[in-house]
Amino acid sequence: MMIDVKNLTITFQTKAGPVNAVKNIDFSVKDGECYGLVGESGSGKSTVLRALSGLNPDWTGDVHIAGEKQGRNRPKSFHKFVQMVFQDPYGSLHPRMTIDSALDEALAIHGLDNRSQRVERALYDVGLPVAFRFRYPHQLSGGQRQRVAIARALILEPKVLLLDEPTSALDVSVQAEILNLLRRLKTERGLTYVLVTHNLAVVGNMCDRVAVMRHGEIVEEATVDALRAGTPSEAYTRQLLLASQGYDRQAAREMIEL
Amino acid sequence: MTDKPLLEVEDLRVSFNTADGVFEAVRGVSFSMGREKLGIVGESGSGKSLTGRSILKLIPAAREVKAKRLNFDGIDLMNASTKQMRAIRGQRISLVMQDPKYSLNPVMTVGAQIEEALLTHTKVKRSEAKKRAIAMLEAVKIRDPERVYKAYPHEVSGGMGQRIMIAMMLIPDPDLMIADEPTSALDVTVQMQVLAILDDLVSERGMGLIFISHDLNLVASFCDRVIVMYGGRIVETLKASELHQARHPYTQGLLKALPQLEKPAGDLPVLTRDPAWMTETFS
Questions:
Q1: A172–B267: do the CB atoms touch at under 8 Å?
Q2: ipTM of the predicted structure?
């Protein structure tokens, strides 16, 4: 198992008292697998991802990544092994840093050699012309920025990539390009993905297995083949499936507030 | 659909001044519609939102908004005065925007905002206005209208915020509603419920609806007719039920690029843009 999560609970302290964002969930992801986490807003899917990446230290439970037990604070070597790509390519790149310095910074932190070549190589790998190296994020389109964000994550040659809604801010035609890129990189480098999304069609295109989350719990774990066959066992999953297929007056009437 | 169109747009053009000279964002859009659900789809930058807003002449930063004809129910909007436009906006044509978080006034209660929409255009007593505001909240399927009436926008969920905005836009009983990505910020199940409300209201009130969206499948399943925009122009107009028989390579390319759950995982066909799409003429 590449990722093994047991009894993961994440609680936030708010003025109104503690909020259980994630309640005692278990899941595991095999080496080389793409595991989807779907759910509606507030279901806790992104919170799980942030806990896995070490961005959110307020969790309890057992998290093993590549067999190693993870604590609250992660060593530098962890971040070389696990990287994350965020939803909004406009917000996740520093506006005053060129693409070159954004990519180079990760290399400097981890003390890697041949930095210049690595930057060029990373741009090439995500299908960006080398001429983009000294541009600023605002000179790039949304899809190009998301490619930079992927290059920035991959430049450290991680084995696990955590993807938080990587295409939901993009147009359909650009989304297709980014999904194709992610699929190619996964095969070429034997990466393991955890993909958070609200879009079941993206899951169908990318993932092997999927966990459906609701109110901080995993209500169902299914293979994508089962989803495709339309045989999920939970009513909530069926409702999500139905709603993702477009508007249907009859279905909307029967929609239940679960 | 009645014989006389509700809205006629002919050769609509919107341009902006930029550092590199004049940029034409909408380049000769023509369509007419009755009391139906008309979808406008396109990717970002296609000019779909600008087309919707120019009907209300709500593009202050534009260098020029011009059209050979912009007729709404016998009124020439192109030559309407600011005063006439103010009477039309909200009252006869209303606009629902994408994100309730930014489009509702955070320091006014929900009830006061809905009443304001009514009181701006009609003379009614306050008590009557309150009654109608609560009835409207019920019409958009808000379960506890009395409570929501007194609530502030930050106290309600996104889906509820969007329904409140729809209530606000419906209370003056408009003839045409322009909805610009009204459900894009919502979860799929909430989206379905909001669409069902819009659907019922359109058929009950005989209202026209312009539904602007980037989501092809959603538009095809919800609207009667679909206009596909690319680079500020209409590349294709289709019956919604016939979207999947689209003829223009851009529409076809968009449809193919959509991931589908039913299809096996694998590379998605990527849209290749033909520069000719920007200049070709359409019959």
A1: no
A2: 0.81
